[in-house]
Amino acid sequence: MPDSAPDYGALAARVRELAREFGFQRCGITGVELGEDEAYLREWLAQGLYGSMDWMARHGDLRARPDELHPGTVRVISVGLDYGRDSDEAWATLDDSERAYVARYALGRDYHKLMRQRLQRLADRIAEVVGPFGHRVFVDSAPVLERALARNAGLGWIGKHTCLIDKDGGSFFFLGEIYVDLPLPVDVPASAHCGTCRRCIDVCPTQAIVAPYRLDARRCIAYLTIEHEGAIPEDLRAPIGNRIFGCDDCQLICPWNKFAQRTDEPDFRVRNDLDKATLVDLFAWSEEEFLQRTEGSAIRRSGHERWLRNIAVALGNARSTPDVIGALRARRESASPMVREHIEWALRRHGADDAA
Asked: Considering 37, 95, 124, 140, which one is annotated as catalytic?
């Protein structure tokens, strides 16, 4: 580093300018103290609300201790990148049982690589000012308590649905961090503005928000359709409706999202017409076609088998039509045992579980 100590106040201001130049709509700086959040996380883990996501339990304490995850860290630069879309369009898809609903964040390119590249460029520009410095970039790539850090950095508050909310921009934005060893001045944490509202709790199809600020991942549609590897519990299949990858209901209903920014980030534009695709069409994708169409997409995370499982459930919840029943029957014999079990369930829902 240069011989003379940097003007950290000026550097912090420059970091925010650079963040916006690189396309981030939000940027804040916070310290590494997360004691209350660590206690809350421990309690949540102790209750087993993380389902089969064992990696959350393995690295529980490390999430709340940035200076242990990356030694030397004294500050965290937190950024937000908008991906919001028209909520009316989303509700229209959810209301049409023959169409497939994909969480808005997954309609375009996977955001991880895009954000990581931009954050690394931001770190490189900081180094041009202060010289080499200790840092590490994160975008869902390690145990990071990103929402708590973003709240402390002033980007927004954690809502009752556990998502981060910005009063000027809603909750449809991605988070990323740079852990740094620079003693930058910190921002004022965001204050909460949920008040008595509980729309997110009431709208959840599977009642996964078991109390304000407490999510039971085992009931969450995002967990069930993306993270969960086995059969979906039968009592949760009907409430899933036509949601085949993730769920946005708790965000769509949030009054603060009427302020959500609409992004025209080319990488987040819809691929494969997923905002209007039918369940029958998507159910016909072979594994080769699935891999080809989901290249560079977050959807590939689920894998083809879970993709078929999820669509089978959605087809079971769809309006009974010859196309729906025909699609289920066409897949029945070639499906894996796990997928076939969901197909049989769907056919029973339509009163079409005979062998004909």
From this structure: 140
254 annotated binding-site participant: yes
- The residues spanned by each domain of the chain are 8-84+105-180
Residue 119 confidence class, pLDDT cut points 50, 70, 90: very high
CA quadruple 178, 179, 185, 190: dihedral, nearest 10: 70
Q: Nearest CA to 311 among 295, 298, 324, 320?
A: 324
| Interatomic CA distance for residues 97 and 56, integer angstroms | 34
Work out the angle at residue 316's Cα, subtended by the Cα atoms of residues 218 and 161, and round it to the nearest 5 degrees.
Answer: 30
Confidence of residue 57 (pLDDT cuts 50, 70, 90): confident
163 assigned binding-site residue: no
Give the percent of the chain with pLDDT over 90: 87
37 is known as an active-site residue? no
Is 175 labelled as part of a ligand binding site?
Answer: yes
Yes or no: domain 8-84+105-180 corresponds to CATH 3.40.50: no
- Helix (H) / strand (E) element for 75: namely strand 75-82
Q: Determine the Cα–Cα distance for residues 212 and 218; give it in Å rounded to an integer.
A: 16
Q: How many residues does the chain have?
A: 356
For residues 78 and 19, the answer to whether their CB atoms sit within 8 Å is no
- Are 85 and 107 in contact, with CB atoms under 8 Å apart? yes
**8 Å CB contact between 11 and 129:** yes
The average pLDDT across 161-183 equals 96
**Is 27 labelled a binding residue?**
no
Report pLDDT for 3: 55
- pLDDT band at residue 36 using 50, 70 and 90 as cut-offs: very high
d(CA 206, CA 72): 42
Question: What mean pLDDT value characterizes the chain?
Answer: 94
- Please tell me whether 247 is known to bind a ligand: yes
